[in-house]
Amino acid sequence: MNIKTSLIKSPLVRAILLSIPILIPSVATAQSLALEEVIVTATKRAESAQDISMSVQSVSGQKLESLGIDNFENMSVNIPNFSVSDSLIVNQITMRGVGSGEDRGFEQSVSTFKDGVYLPRSRQTRSPFFDVDRVEVLRGPQAVLFGLNSTAGAISVHGATNKPGDDFEISLTGEYEAEFGGVRARAIAGGSAGETLGWRLALESKDSGDGWLKNSVSGDAGIIEHDMARLSFVWEPSENLSATFRWEHNKSESTGQLTEIVNGNINLPGDGALGGFAQRVAGINGIIPGSIDLRGENSQFDYVSFVENNPRFQSLDDGLEGNTYRNTLGADQEIDNASLALDWAIGENTLTALLGYSDYFYDAAVNIAGTPYSIYSGSNYEEYEQTSLEVRLASAAGNKFEWIVGAYYQDSTLFTDQPNVFDVSEVLGLAIGLPPAIVTAAVTGAPLYELGGANLAQDSDLKSVFLSGTYNFSDTFRVTAGVRYSDEEKVYRRDAATAGSGLYLKNPDGSLGFALGGAILNANGAAVGKTAGTVDSDNTMPELMAEWDIQDDVMLYARYAESAKAGGVATAGSADTSGLIYGDEQAESIEIGMKGRFLDGRAELNVALFSTDFTDLQVKSSAIGPSGEVVTVIGNAGEASSTGVELDGRILISESLTLGGTLAFLNAEYDSYSAGPCNRSRSTGAGSLPGTCDLGGQALPFAADTSASVYADIFKPISDNLNLVANLTVSYSDEYFVEGTLEPTLIQDSWTKVSGRIGVEAADNSWSLALLGQNLTDEETWLGGQPLFGYDMVYPAAPRTITLQGTYRF
Questions:
Q1: Which end of the chain has fewer CB atoms < 10 Å from its terminal CB, N or C?
Q2: What is the CATH number of domain 5-161+248-809?
Q3: Residue 619 belongs to what H/E stretch?
């Protein structure tokens, strides 16, 4: 771990470091202190995280707010074996090296729940954190209580509420980000309306300011604006009945495209003396100067992009679906989530009913090739709506035999579309090394476009029942067994040769001209045509756990679980017919661990050893075909495994100082994948089928061998009315692949990231003022990547940000 010297020069970090020696001498006075207990609902009951027999990490909403973390991507930096990245296609979540790839048809291997409602689509996870009570991260396959497509893990987000009897409160927060001029304002009000009703309203507006990815061609990228509202009511008419209603709305827009071209000098098979992408362009411009304008593109990762903003694919709208999609680089999204939870005490048992609703649309315009000129442009559009109902009956806790039985139903509709356009003259020119003008003159006499797309309309019906029971053999030993049966039916209609697809001449005014029909590149999947059918998935998922309290505050546990993720239909336009339908993904896991409290409750240490075997892992990657073309590969890999060790702990050094951290060692690899995609460099051996490569024994993407995060929390009175508050967090990761073909040029180097906070607050908590920093060492990292036409396109993570945050409460 090599922390840059600029870290030590940071005023924020120096202030925190200088505070630590002042705090440590008070450790001797802390004998009567104890860590605050962390309460989670990972077992559908409220209990201490130290009493749950699985690897669980909980982050409070207060800590997320104090560190300026408002999305999964930023949160994952501080949680080893957990990675979140937002690509052009999906929001991809990876746990212990396993995720679902970037096809829009996939459900996530790491399932997401918001206020108890299951959210299967990746775009549903893009909504920022807002007025959150806590976020729980459950590592490893989930079988019974969270076993909805949860083969790698689950995340549960719980919003804040006010209960009857709470005092009236108002909180106002303002933030200013100094590096790029971003601002955020938040207002929260809540309290009681009578003796039986609690209410809470939260509003937020954010403008991230100037874009942090510089682009002089189409405008800077990384600009985000969003407006959010969240309303909740808690009604408790009696001691035996409680009803909680929540509604959340999020409308956001991102401007520009967060991609960069790197590694532009890679050779392709057949390139000969021309070399890679840059050499091809040089050769073409040598024939006719200015044929292809790189506009300063240097193929270096430097937060400078030259992606062109080309709206010409917008002309597909009338010929395709009659929709009006976004026509400038960026994305629009609108999300509504609502839930109604009823808890009714019936004798010693509790009946819970949770009704959930979610819908959203997502509309993005992208330069798919990521080049300074739009040889390949497109739109990503998605609409989704779901209604769900879960009913549970749970016995009282503390009985000799404790049990939970439940049923779940979900109905959803999905429409996703990806109209694309190829500039045939430019693409063929790059392929054969001739200027587009020569290609145009030789082929048609006018510019030629190939239009196409891939849309999928899908209705899904998911039914599930589950049962879990715990038998307490003694005060120190208990066994839990459970099972979930899940049945999902997806009825789909897919058209990979959307109406209007084919070849078109371009008119002098830039509009589409005469339609020639057919296709030249066939990169839009025209050969698949219209298809329809049904995909059925039914799975039985058992779980068995044993817990032994070897001391009052030390527990050993063992857990066995099987989980599954439903198959479905590929959405990528360039998907081959043979890869249109992918099957269920299966996971089988064993985890043993220890959870303990020490030093009279002032310290905690948890250890988990795990091994998970995956069968028919659902994968998507972009392979390079024999002629250098990009081919989308979607299907089920043979077998993969994820094995490792996770340690986490914290210690209360004194009233003023808490230290903590997490360390993870991981070995996640393909055990058998003999017909995998080949990368551009052909760094893996030949596969079992022509045109494939054997990825057996290779590491999975986003699977770092070692990752860690350590932190120091400081709270110290500096006068009768004023407290010092500070945090320093250092996170580290080994290197890892960032895309599915395991291209050696797309290995993210090891990194160390530092974040922190320092500020003051009133002793009565009426106000606070703090300086927040994220990625203080300004590490340059990738969230993902894709090998393309002789170069790599990557998705950069944000650089350093420094934010001034002020809050007033009354």
A1: C
A2: 2.40.170.20
A3: strand 618-624
